[in-house]
């Protein structure tokens, strides 16, 4: 059983930056891919970024590519999301997630049904 706890959300102006962090506990993450998802007001939960725990290989949603960076710190068991050049459209609850890094996940990482564990979420609001 993996537990995920996010932190770092808050209010930021358009064009600003914010860093989210997720601490994982409950066992080894070597078999997992870690991810960030978000749910914007009135929208379905959507994929943001994912990273393989053991190889640092990352993938991004087109809407955040070039602005957001996912990383992991294996020594601290954390996965981070650095968000730059934030837009009002980035306002959402951001969720940390973990999924067994199988071929199914690799081919379907944008599908929430392949996520095994979710954090409780942290609010990010981008507003002037």
Walk me through the structure.
With 128 residues, the protein is mainly β. Helix content is 4%, strand content 49%. The longest helix is centred in the last third of the chain and has 5 residues, at 103-107. The protein is globular and about 40 Å long. The mean pLDDT is 96.
The helix fraction, in percent, is under 10%
Overall pLDDT confidence: 96
Low-confidence stretches: none
Order of helices and strands: EEEEEEEEEHEE
Our measurement of the CA-to-CA distance between the termini, rounded to an integer number of angstroms, reads 40 Å
Shape: globular
- Report the C-alpha radius of gyration, rounded: 14 Å
The helix-and-strand class reads mainly beta
Oligomer: single chain
Strand content: over 45%
Largest sheet: 7 strands, mixed
Count of helix runs: 1
Work out the number of β strands: 11
Summarize the structure.
By secondary structure, the chain is mainly beta.
What secondary-structure arrangement, pairings included, does this model have?
Blueprint: E1 3-7, E2 10-12, E3 18-25, E4 32-39, E5 45-52, E6 58-60, E7 68-73, E8 78-83, E9 92-100, H1 103-107, E10 117-118, E11 122-126
Parallel strand pairs: 2-11
Antiparallel strand pairs: 1-3, 3-8, 4-5, 4-9, 5-6, 7-8, 9-10, 9-11
């Amino acid at each position: 059983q993996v537990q995920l706890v996010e932190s770092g959300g808050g209010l930021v102006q358009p064009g600003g930056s914010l860093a989210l962090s997720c601490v994982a506990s409950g066992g080894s993450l070597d078999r997992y891919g870690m991810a960030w998802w978000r749910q914007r007001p009135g929208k379905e939960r959507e994929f943001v970024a994912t990273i393989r725990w053991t190889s640092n290989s990352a993938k991004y949603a087109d809407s955040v590519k070039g602005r957001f960076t996912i990383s992991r710190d294996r020594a601290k068991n954390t996965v981070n999301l650095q968000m730059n050049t934030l837009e009002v459209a980035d306002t959402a609850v951001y969720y940390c997630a973990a999924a067994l890094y199988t071929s199914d996940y690799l081919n379907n990482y944008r599908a929430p049904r392949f996520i095994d564990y979710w954090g409780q979420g942290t609010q990010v609001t981008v507003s002037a």
